[in-house]
Amino acid sequence: MAITITKQLISPELIKVKAVVSQSSATTITLDQEPMMIQSVRVTAGGSVGLYCVTDAAGTVVDVGSEVGVCKLDGKVLTFNSACTAAVIEYIAPASALK
To answer: CA 25, 93, 2: angle at the middle one, nearest 5?
Structure first.
């Protein structure tokens, strides 16, 4: 898996992260750090391309239908119902994660 990370300091405590992911076909994506809040998830290649909202680890994953799909977040791992090979994820993380 290859991840291109862009980080922007938005306050002394927070950074905005944009992760562009390219990977072999898989139903999970592991981020570099645990997000405090996910802003957006967009699968750009794979079994179900489109926009996703995020639920907690106990949620149910759903492929993109006519509108929005659902993926779940457990720590640093996003899980999808169908395999994805490319995605763009934007999220907020603690500034301590800035390296």
So the answer is: 25
Q: Which of 19, 16, 1 is nearest to 84 (CA)?
A: 1
Cα–Cα dist 64/51, whole Å: 7
pLDDT in tens, 22-70: 999 999 999 988 999 999 999 999 989 999 999 999 999 999 887 899 9
CA distance 87 to 96: 25
Instruction: Give this prediction's pTM.
Output: 0.88
CB atoms within 10 A of CB 33: 19
Q: Where are the domains of the chain?
A: 2-97
- Which CA distances in Å does 41 have to 11, 38, 79? 22, 8, 11
Q: Of residues 1 and 10, which shows the higher confidence score?
A: 10
Tokens of 5: 């990370």
Give residues with Cβ within 8 angstroms of 66, minimum separation 6.
none
CA–CA dist 56, 80 (Å, integer): 12
